[in-house]
């Protein structure tokens, strides 16, 4: 009996990467009380967020059990389903607040763009893996097109935050697959030259957000408000913070979206620079662990997927923290494992699960 | 294990290139996160004093200043919607310790009705506890003084001046002007969709119907704001900077409010609608839907009792019949049918038929109103005497597709695009329409017998009064068709610049002038010696008209006797007209629900309206010093 239990336990933890799990749990432990603090005076989101976390952890564990060869098989179908859903959104999506992001299934609504955060890196990693021995320049072109289609559909909705995350995830795969530096430098030059044209193509509100970033006081009632109030929250937190549930900016409702995208403002106000430093350290450890897994991965698929997923985490963290602290424009990107919201939690957990899978199945595929 | 094999083939060069990139990524991540760390250090250590001052000791609050909503005036400058400032008693719930005790205390000093408390609670539930919420509106000077004397008892309670909307004409033209009411969730979505969210901070009312709704963003103006320092108690200490609001733009209408009032009075307590249009511009002179309602009831949140009265009344006063009522046009359709016949070459004006009093189609007798028939009938006589048989036969000869094609050009069965939202389409019957409308194949088929009664404006025909008025104006204007509109120009409140709503012709119908003349002549005949003659006797100007009666209730062969039929099932009375005949200045359509014959109840209303508009003549019983209030 005891041996059976021991075997069961070994089976259960065989594909779990302890450092990744610990870091994730610590981030969740920092996030939960913050969600509580941000929402307790209205209706607490504590229990639903705990449920979200439980679902996320289950998804993480389940994905970790799948060997990379199995993960690879999901690439094409997930990508195709995702793109078809995005096209459906384009034509039949529900418009909420001026953006067409949701698809109604009758009983519930889904946001297909979220799926692409996983499907795009999977698909591209599979594609490069398939052509590994014969990688030519044209493969990079095809990969870019595969990335561009969902990216354009999401940007068109418009959902700049998700478009950035999907675009970044795809770019990281292409980057790690060995895209030549000459092309990268060329692209950067082209992007620089195209910036004025992109500016004219942006939506009014997106342009306003960028302008507001340069001088938030020009629009104190509109988008400048978020930045002004969140920098006040962070700055007033000081070295040690005002203490849990003590943030005046938070509890006097100065902070908008305070349990979702702007949760860092609440955390910073109540936990101060000390809390922020710990948070940065945790994310740094998470990213470091991910890059280590990428470096040690035994297949091209594993390498580029792990690299892309890890840098995606970095993108979430950098874009969100940069936005809340007022050095990047306001785009809808949550803070991993801190922000309230089930969809993001599951997506991020699946990412961790994939890293675990790549790391723990490494030995098995070696001859 | 294909995957593992190929990975073994990865050359060392490729692998080391990958590793180099991973290291590079790690360095970039470290740099970026350090940047964030530095930013936090800057905000939380170096700038901490500055931000904690802003956050705790003196919070700087941005207070929106709501702009004055634009004014609406009629074509003569008479005010239809304006604002006035009144004192309100407001509570900021977050600054009050015991809300119940405060409200109880206040009701000892001032009259606070249960309605006021209900509204306050509703606002509170919307979660605006940091805003100042009105508990009593429209305080008198004496009440303000009484509160001021007791003010020290009520921290967190203040008297503020707020702007209120007012409709000085009361219920006159309420369907055209519409009203404003509190912003709800759906309005908020509309605001967000139009990227107006920042401009609506502080605004709590929005146009709900009519012009107030359609021109919401023009009327609203630009919200100003004031940066104020607030102490820990939430009280404003001093103003730091102030950007004044910009008043909303003003609307000047094509509507003539006196004409409108006369038209509304002419309806009395009868249900119905009237639309009068200036044919040469499409400007709407009067837009009546009877009965009306008082839009002032809605401004402050309507009382439940008032809402019940409006909503449960069988007369449905909230329904805008001019735009949303759809009626069969009855015989008012005949002039348009006759024009279609001339234009398609199916008839000449002189061609005659002989009317035995019925039309035989496949063994079924379609009856004419006149027993024994009208004898020999040409086109002129068919309109003047309203001969049904002529049109039964004409419709059959033309066929449904030709009729639908011509009438579609005239705007029947389509939204006119008037500047009030939510207009109904009506029904222009055609085989395609039937296919769309019905599910079962046997219902989808168009039967030739159904075309017969289309000719006299019955059957599936169903149009809004504004469509009928637009078609009449188009004939009066010799085929040049305009989009009916209520606003003549918008005045920019800052520059005083006027933006005309240009009367661009919607389309120019290529009718032969001779054909239009034939129809207009016949319609003049109606008002001189035909079915409209009695209503227009001694008018002093020449006018064209056409009576109509629309069946509400199918009689199944028995003779229609008004007195024998219950009032709700009586026929609708219709009348269309234009005047003066030579150079029409006004064209209109009138519908009196269950009014019986058009000549009897609808034509006299048209006469009163045209008399006033052309001659300035007031109908009997309306004194010169009218109660249209001027400003």
From TrEMBL, chain A:
Compartment list: Cell inner membrane; Membrane
Record EC number: 2.4.99.28
Catalytic activity reported: [GlcNAc-(1->4)-Mur2Ac(oyl-L-Ala-gamma-D-Glu-L-Lys-D-Ala-D-Ala)](n)-di-trans,octa-cis-undecaprenyl diphosphate + beta-D-GlcNAc-(1->4)-Mur2Ac(oyl-L-Ala-gamma-D-Glu-L-Lys-D-Ala-D-Ala)-di-trans,octa-cis-undecaprenyl diphosphate = [GlcNAc-(1->4)-Mur2Ac(oyl-L-Ala-gamma-D-Glu-L-Lys-D-Ala-D-Ala)](n+1)-di-trans,octa-cis-undecaprenyl diphosphate + di-trans,octa-cis-undecaprenyl diphosphate + H(+)
Transmembrane segments: 20-40, 46-64, 76-94, 137-154, 160-177, 184-202, 273-292, 304-331, 337-358
Membrane topology: Multi-pass membrane protein
Main localisation: membrane
Protein name: Peptidoglycan glycosyltransferase MrdB
Organism field: Candidatus Accumulibacter meliphilus
Stated family: Belongs to the SEDS family. MrdB/RodA subfamily.
UniProt xrefs under NCBIfam families: rodA_shape (TIGR02210)
Enzyme class: transferase
TrEMBL record, chain B:
Domain Penicillin-binding protein dimerisation span(s) in chain numbering: 65-239
Annotated compartments: Cell inner membrane; Cell membrane; Membrane
Reactions mediated catalytically: Preferential cleavage: (Ac)2-L-Lys-D-Ala-|-D-Ala. Also transpeptidation of peptidyl-alanyl moieties that are N-acyl substituents of D-alanine
EC number(s) from the headed UniProt entry: 3.4.16.4
Gene Ontology cellular component annotations, sorted alphabetically: plasma membrane
Keywords, alphabetical: Carboxypeptidase, Cell inner membrane, Cell membrane, Cell shape, Cell wall biogenesis/degradation, Hydrolase, Membrane, Metal-binding, Peptidoglycan synthesis, Protease, Transmembrane, Transmembrane helix, Zinc
EC class name: hydrolase
Active site: 331
Binding site for Zn(2+): 355, 368, 374, 387
GO terms of biological process kind: cell wall organization; peptidoglycan biosynthetic process; proteolysis; regulation of cell shape
Gene3D superfamilies associated with the record: DD-peptidase/beta-lactamase superfamily, Penicillin-binding protein 2a (Domain 2), Penicillin-binding protein 2a, domain 3
GO MF, one example: zinc ion binding
Chief localization: membrane
SUPFAM superfamilies: beta-lactamase/transpeptidase-like, Penicillin binding protein dimerisation domain
Domain Penicillin-binding protein transpeptidase: 272-610
UniProt entry tagged with the keyword Membrane: yes
Topology with respect to the bilayer: Single-pass membrane protein
Superkingdom: Bacteria
InterPro entries per record: Beta-lactam/transpept, Beta-lactam/transpept-like, PBP_dimer, PBP_dimer_sf, PCN-bd_Tpept, Penicillin-binding_protein_2
Transmembrane segments: 20-42
Pathway assignment: Cell wall biogenesis; peptidoglycan biosynthesis
Function per UniProt: Catalyzes cross-linking of the peptidoglycan cell wall.
Family designation: Belongs to the transpeptidase family. MrdA subfamily.
Protein name: Peptidoglycan D,D-transpeptidase MrdA
Species name: Candidatus Accumulibacter meliphilus
Lineage of producing organism: Bacteria, Pseudomonadati, Pseudomonadota, Betaproteobacteria, Candidatus Accumulibacter
